[in-house]
Structure formats: structure tokens, C-alpha cells
Amino acid sequence: MKKIVCVAVVGKANDPLYFQDFSGGTEENRLKLHYIVHCSLDIIEDKPGVKKVSNDMYLGLLYPTEDYKVYGFLTNTKIKFIIVVLDTTDIKDSDIKVLHLRYVRTASNPFYKANKKIESKIFQNDVAAIVQSL
């Protein structure tokens, strides 16, 4: 089973830009992962220092559930990266920064509309490759 269960990219207005479930589970499990990602947004907002402008911030472990751990990363443009992993897995900041670099490459494409849903096949393949490598 893969270590990374879910990857989400959330815009500055908390609008979903990208969500991918890698668990291969049921629709019920997919809804559970949506709920976990949604709950993590509240935790990110409550973190100290999040409201001020700073360099890219690895937020670390946001919270554990009974099955998963949720990690976060916030850019200075308030784009949030949320990764849900199995409870036996830990994620380092360098792991999420690789995902952030792929997002920057996608967002730098002149055909990408800022703060819109990411539908790039290249980005989806990059995320799948990152998930496989961890």
C-alpha cells in the first residue's frame, strides 16, 4: 500500500485547486479524505504566524487521525499543500517542497489561469511520480 493516501492543493480563498485520492478506496473513503482536508484548513488558519507574510512555511504535522497523519505546507501566496499519509509515515519539508516546485512549474504556464482548478496532465503525472517515490 502506498504511504501517501491523498494530495490536495488549496487556493488562498480555501478553494480546491487539486485533489487526488491515492488510496484506491471506496467513495466513502474518498469523502472521508475530503473531510480530513477540509478540517486541516481550520488548523492551518489557527496556526500562529500564518496570517503574516513570510517565506514558504512547512507547517509539519497538522493533526493525526486514527488511520492517517495530515501534513501541511503554506506558500507566501497563501496556497496550501495538504498531504494525508498512513499513520506509520512521516513527511519531511523537502518532500513537500518537491510538490511545491511542480506546482510552480504548472502555475508558470501561460495557459494556466491563476487560482483555478489544476487540470494539467503533466502536474497529475508529476504528483503520481512523487507519491510512487516516497
What does this structure look like?
With 134 residues, the protein is an alpha+beta fold. The chain has one domain (4-133): 2-Layer Sandwich (Beta-Lactamase). The chain is built from three helices and five strands, in the order E-E-H-E-E-E-H-H. It has helices at residues 27-46, 93-107, 121-133, and strands at 4-10, 16-21, 57-64, 68-74, 80-86. The protein has a five-stranded antiparallel β-sheet with strand order 2-1-5-4-3, with helices on both faces. The longest helix is centred in the first third of the chain and has 20 residues, at 27-46. The mean pLDDT is 88. One of its GO terms (cellular component) is cytoplasm. It holds the Pfam family Sedlin_N. This is Trafficking protein particle complex subunit 2-like protein.
N-to-C series of helices and strands: EEHEEEHH
The total count of strands amounts to: 5
Strand order within the widest sheet? 2-1-5-4-3
The overall average pLDDT, rounded, is 88
The amount of beta strand, in percent, is 25-35%
What CATH architecture label applies? 2-Layer Sandwich
Overall structural class, as computed from helix and strand content, comes to alpha+beta
The coarse overall form would be globular
Q: Rg to the nearest angstrom?
A: 14 Å
